């Protein structure tokens, strides 16, 4: 019995010695690495290699469209919107003198001359802009324009008929806006509007009285 125990002890001692590291050989082992995410083919990583992967979405060239220009300046944005030309027509027939302003030249009535583009306005109102109201008195054969809702209602009470909104402008000077001057001739019962100071002085010589500034619009585009 003692012999059998001795044999077993020796055998176990031999296995234990074999399991010990040899002299001069490091027993340090690299810890196992774990990858979390999409499965990829196993590629050995060097000590300086990162496992971060970048995914890029590519658009087929056949569906690629040109990128529109980015307008960063608010005034550039406003100027881009102010693309509506404001035309002026004039009826010089005595007793029926009248000026009409419209963004649609075909709206100028028969018998009126077409004075061309006299200003630019907004077609739709960006923030801060206000409408340019148009009214008409058939009795006085006179078109009236204002950016004041109070003045609009006042003239509606004087027999002027609401004609809608011609366009949009500003109540103050901003983004290169220029004043839209208003003059009135009692003899002709006619309101006259212009952004041209030279036209203002010419109208004064023709008997028109300066009323003030209706609002601010924009210079016509240079051709």
Question: What attributes does this structure have?
Answer:
three-stranded antiparallel sheet, DUF5648, disordered N terminus, signal, DUF5648 domain-containing protein
The termini sit apart by 121 Å
The proportion of residues in beta strands is 25-35%
Give the overall silhouette. globular
Oligomer: single chain
Q: Helices and strands, in N-to-C order?
A: HHEEEEEHEEEHE
Looking across the biggest beta sheet, what order are the strands in? 2-1-3
pLDDT average, as an integer? 77
Secondary structure topology:
Layout: H1 2-19, H2 74-81, E1 84-91, E2 98-102, E3 113-121, E4 130-137, E5 142-146, H3 149-156, E6 161-169, E7 178-185, E8 190-194, H4 197-205, E9 209-217
Antiparallel strand pairs: 1-2, 1-3, 4-5, 4-6, 7-8, 7-9
What does this structure look like?
By secondary structure, the chain is of the alpha+beta class. It has a domain of 144 residues. Helices cover 19% and strands 30% of the residues. It has 4 helices and 9 strands; from the N terminus they run H-H-E-E-E-E-E-H-E-E-E-H-E. The strands form 3 sheets. Strands 2-1-3 form a 3-stranded antiparallel beta sheet, with no helix packed on it. It has a 3-stranded antiparallel beta sheet with strand order 5-4-6, with helices on one face. A 3-stranded antiparallel beta sheet has the order 8-7-9, with helices on one face. A hairpin with a 4-residue loop joins strand 7 and strand 8. This is DUF5648 domain-containing protein. It comes from Hohenbuehelia grisea. InterPro entries: DUF5648 (IPR043708).
């Amino acid at each position: 019995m003692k012999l059998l125990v001795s044999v077993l002890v020796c055998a176990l001692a031999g296995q234990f010695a074999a399991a010990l590291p040899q002299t001069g050989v490091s027993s340090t082992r690299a810890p196992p690495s774990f990858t979390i995410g999409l499965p990829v083919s196993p590629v050995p990583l060097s000590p300086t290699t990162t496992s971060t992967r970048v995914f890029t979405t590519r658009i087929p060239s056949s569906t690629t469209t040109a990128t529109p220009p980015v307008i960063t300046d608010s005034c550039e944005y406003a100027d881009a919107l102010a693309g509506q030309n404001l035309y002026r027509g004039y009826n010089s027939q005595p007793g029926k003198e009248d000026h009409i302003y419209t963004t649609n030249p075909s709206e100028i009535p028969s018998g009126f001359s077409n004075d061309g583009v006299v200003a630019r306005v907004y077609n739709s109102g960006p923030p801060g802009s206000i409408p340019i109201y148009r009214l008409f008195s058939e009795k006085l054969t006179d078109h009236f324009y204002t950016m004041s809702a109070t003045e609009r209602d006042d003239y509606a009470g004087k027999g002027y008929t609401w004609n809608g909104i011609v366009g949009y402008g500003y109540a103050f000077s901003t983004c290169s806006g220029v004043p839209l001057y208003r003059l009135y001739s009692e003899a002709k019962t006619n309101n006259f509007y212009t952004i041209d100071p030279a036209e203002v002085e010419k109208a004064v010589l023709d008997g028109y009285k300066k009323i003030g500034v209706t609002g601010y619009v924009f210079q016509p585009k240079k051709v």
